[in-house]
Design brief:
Rossmann fold; 15 strands; about 475 residues; alpha/beta; 6-stranded parallel sheet; about 15% strand
């Protein structure tokens, strides 16, 4: 018999759509501190080892299901990147994921992409093209067209995929699924979703560093070419890196892209909303050509589909922009008359984020992520609680779900086939935030019918030198 190499094994596993438990004579074993044999763990590379990548690394390690074999970050001198490296002395380090794959592709089974929004796409495309399973942070990509390409390559490659909207493995997911299948959630005609906390870019319109990307001295060791990725190459600024890129239209997806993936993911999936036929900018405050509005209200209109009524989804973001909620449905402490946040305390998530869903018979409320739905008013819930269907409470979390799927033991709950269309809806909303007005969208052709400016933003061309990722 010919000897089986790790490359042969990985190619075979990718061809059949998933990775099984690795034989010990093939696996690359290290960091065996969890009790699981190295041969039973997935070899993982982290693209971004600071910021969200640092927190993702801790969450994946807590599952006991992975070996960390590579750490990649454009700024290896950041404190969190240094901590990651210190905790995994055997993991190879890189500033450019392209060089990482050139050097050690055969040693990697799965990749965790936690970079800024605009650079999700090329890293994820390259990983899938090499047969690597991919976890990609939310939203899936920066543009509608990038999401389409990611979904296409995920299907063609057969690799395991997962988007990092963690609540899609929590109580909200299982409850929403169970209650929809049982007919408790039905005939939803209106959803108000919101995240009305302040943002880093609330007052940027007055910041002199914002105008024309005024350049600042760049700290040593930063790979700025890789950071800029497929987007235009702008001068270095601390309003971009390390943590403020989200508010820029060329690099981030704003509050809508950041939070709606955690708030409207379950209604989008289980109400089968698909694409809107119309998106309307109801309100935009602090409009600026380079950054997202300080606050906005965007209305998505979804048509009748599969026996379900048309549905209006209103997204509210920015300080003071919480939707109006009738007193009988206001069950949070922060919504009660005279409520005052204790001095010196941080507001709970329920103060500023959530969703309200209106059906013909019931009204549902929830916060975000894994928080389960509540039927309001409370007396209505008490009257029907004995008849409400149960849903599973003990399940793998989102990180373990991905790794178990890589091992062939589960299926991911937010694969690109599910999270891609959701992220495309967010991309449509981001275009509305930028352009304003009333945009008509053809769900079949996936084009706007009344705005060429909007169509140009669906799939803008990449920066010169980065076209190859659009052809994979």
């Amino acid at each position: 018999m010919y000897p089986v190499t790790r490359r042969d094994f990985l190619k075979a596993s990718a061809a059949f759509g998933g990775l099984t438990v690795l034989p010990s004579y093939i696996a690359l074993g290290n960091q065996s501190s969890t009790g699981y044999a190295p041969s039973e763990r997935v070899n993982v590379a982290f693209i971004a080892s600071a910021g969200k990548g640092y927190r993702n690394r801790l969450a994946f390690l807590a599952t006991g299901l992975c070996n960390v074999v590579a750490l990649c970050d454009i700024d290896l001198d950041r404190d969190e990147a240094k901590k990651s490296a210190a905790e995994h002395p055997n993991a190879k380090q890189f500033t450019d994921y392209r060089k990482m794959f050139d050097t050690m592709a055969d040693e990697i089974d799965a990749v965790i992409v936690s970079t800024p929004d605009h650079s999700h796409f090329p890293a994820t495309m390259l990983a899938m093209s090499l047969g690597k399973h991919v976890w990609c942070e939310k939203p899936l990509a920066h543009t509608f067209g990038q999401c389409a390409r990611l979904m296409d390559l995920a299907e063609r490659s057969g690799v395991v995929t997962q988007m990092g909207n963690q609540g899609h493995s929590g109580s909200n997911y299982f409850q929403f699924k169970s209650w929809t299948e049982a007919g408790v959630i039905k005939d939803i005609t209106k959803i108000d979703a919101y995240q009305v906390q302040g943002t880093r870019w609330n007052n940027w319109a007055e910041n002199p560093k914002l105008k024309n990307y005024i350049e600042q001295p760049m700290p040593a060791g930063i790979d700025w070419e890789t950071w800029c990725s497929v987007s235009p190459k702008r001068p270095y600024s601390d309003l971009l890196h390390p943590a403020s890129w989200r508010g820029w239209v060329e690099f981030g997806c704003g509050k809508l892209g950041d939070w709606a993936a955690h708030v409207i993911d379950t209604p989008h999936r289980f109400l089968k909303l698909g694409y809107p036929e119309q998106v309307t900018s109801i309100m935009r405050d602090g409009v600026h050509p380079l950054i997202y509005p300080r606050a906005s209200t965007i209305r998505f209109n979804f048509p009748e589909r599969e026996g379900m009524p048309a549905c209006e989804l209103n997204w509210h973001d920015g300080p003071g922009n919480k939707p109006e909620i009738a007193p009988e449905y206001s069950d949070l402490k922060s919504e009660q008359p005279g409520y005052k946040l204790p001095e010196g305390t941080k507001p709970p998530r329920s103060d500023y984020v959530g969703k309200v869903m209106y059906s013909k018979d019931l009204v549902f409320r929830a916060v975000s992520h894994e928080q389960p739905l509540r039927i309001v008013p409370k007396q209505k819930y008490l009257d029907m609680r004995r008849d409400l269907p149960r849903f599973p409470q003990k399940n793998s979390n989102h990180w373990a779900n991905f790794l178990l799927a890589c091992k062939g033991e589960e299926e991911t709950r937010s694969p690109f086939s599910v999270s891609g269309p959701l992220s495309q809806v967010l991309a449509i909303g981001m275009i509305s935030q930028r352009l304003g007005g009333d945009l008509k969208f053809d769900r079949d052709t996936k084009k706007f019918t009344n705005s060429e400016a909007a169509n140009a933003l669906l799939d803008p061309a990449p920066r010169k030198g980065w076209e190859e990722f659009y052809r994979l």
